[in-house]
Design brief:
Elements (H helix, E strand, L loop, with lengths): L20 E6 H6 L2 H13 L2 E6 L5 E5 L2 E8 L8 H10 L6 E6 L3 H13 L8 E5 L2 H46 L14 H7 L4 H12 L1 H5 L5
Parallel strand pairs: 1-2, 4-5, 5-6
Antiparallel strand pairs: 1-3, 3-4
Helix pairs in contact: 2-5, 6-7
Protein name: Protein PARTING DANCERS-like isoform X2
InterPro entries: PTD
């Protein structure tokens, strides 16, 4: 079973560094909660630059951070005598969302024991989804925001690494073509980008066709992005 160790830590209620995004809350879930809970959530999200919308969705929450969506079921009242509805809902939703977590408030030992027994009774797959037991609602919601935020940050880092790699390849390509062009007599690094077909013909023994291709290579971004100089 994949469980968080959050049952022993206290909620900080502090703002999280670099957060921000959109939080969708299920209308039905909102109606089942005490007004204090909704007020706490609204305040916490506002402090962390999240926009809150109430919508008719299947999970209790969907967060979008950095272009990545993460879905949650948030069980705020674990009824030891009625757990089948919770697990049947979880089993259905886990097939609909690639990133899906279940937050459960389990303040009493009896509730924790009930959850563990039920987890195996309903043959849940370890880590699919991940269950996060917490002591109270505030702690649970803070955990939820942290999970969504960290998922978004991870995606942005991967995108950043990809862009960095692409930029490196672009620079390497530019350096390569400058070496090739500046090796042509009469064209130095300063005017390589301005070399015309006539200049290339004047300073080399290339054919008019190849001179035209090199000139386009220097001037036309679309042609440069996929050069076909042979």
């Amino acid at each position: 079973m994949h469980l968080s160790d959050s049952t022993t830590s206290a909620p900080s209620h502090a703002t999280l560094s670099g957060t921000g995004g959109v939080c969708l809350m299920r209308n039905v879930w909102k109606g089942e909660q005490h007004p204090y809970v909704i007020n706490f959530i609204s305040t916490f999200l506002s402090a962390n630059s999240f926009r809150l919308n109430f919508v008719p969705i299947a999970p209790d929450f969907i967060f979008n951070c950095g272009g990545l969506s993460v879905a949650f079921v948030f069980v705020t009242n674990w009824d030891c005598n009625n757990v089948s509805l919770i697990f049947s809902r979880v089993q259905k939703l886990r097939t609909q969302f690639a990133r899906f977590y279940v937050i459960i408030t389990l303040p009493a030992k009896q509730q924790m024991n009930s959850f563990i027994q039920s987890y195996f009774t309903f043959e849940m797959v370890i880590g699919k989804p991940t269950f996060v037991p917490v002591q109270d609602i505030e702690m649970g919601f803070e955990k939820m925001v942290k999970i969504a935020h960290s998922s978004g940050v991870y995606k942005q880092q991967k995108v950043g690494e990809k862009l960095k790699a692409e930029k490196k390849l672009s620079v390497q390509g530019m350096n390569f073509y400058l070496k090739v062009v500046t090796s042509i007599p009469g064209i130095d690094n300063h005017d390589a980008n301005a070399a015309s077909k006539d200049q290339i013909l004047e300073n080399t023994d290339l054919s008019a066709e190849k001179a035209e291709m090199i000139s386009r290579f220097l001037r036309d971004p679309k042609f440069y992005s996929s050069p076909k100089i042979t």
